[in-house]
Amino acid sequence: MYAIIRDRGMQYRVEQGQVLTLDLIETAEAGSQLELGEVLLIGDGTTIKVGSPLVRGASVQAEVLGMRKGDKIIVFRYRNKKRYRRRTGHRQRYTQVKISAIITEE
């Protein structure tokens, strides 16, 4: 069984047992349970249930594994002929979750 969920404007296709990297969730602690309630579609190989816009009574349970940082991105600003150069870096923070269950209303 799989589901397509929406989390803060991003859509993900998830299955049970899958490890997923989401944008940082400040309130989530490692080891805690998280409920992702915006389920757009649920499929089990033979039937597909499409929501309008959400599937009624469906949710996805996930366990928070921890926080991690993404790759470093270098931002370089430069102005031609003006001796202006600025080099800064950025590392985006993410929350890693493991999908534990896909719940339907059936």
What does this structure look like?
The protein has 106 residues and is mainly beta. It has one domain (2-103). 0% of the residues lie in helices and 66% in strands. The protein has no helices and 8 strands. The chain has strands spanning 2-7, 10-15, 19-23, 33-36, 39-43, 48-50, 59-79, 84-103. The strands form 2 sheets. A 4-stranded antiparallel beta sheet has the order 2-1-5-6, with no helix packed on it. A 4-stranded antiparallel beta sheet has the order 3-8-7-4, with no helix packed on it. Strand 7 and strand 8 (84-103) form a beta hairpin. The protein is elongated, with a radius of gyration of 19 Å. The two termini are 14 Å apart. The mean pLDDT is 94.
Question: Any descriptors?
Answer:
elongated, four-stranded antiparallel sheet
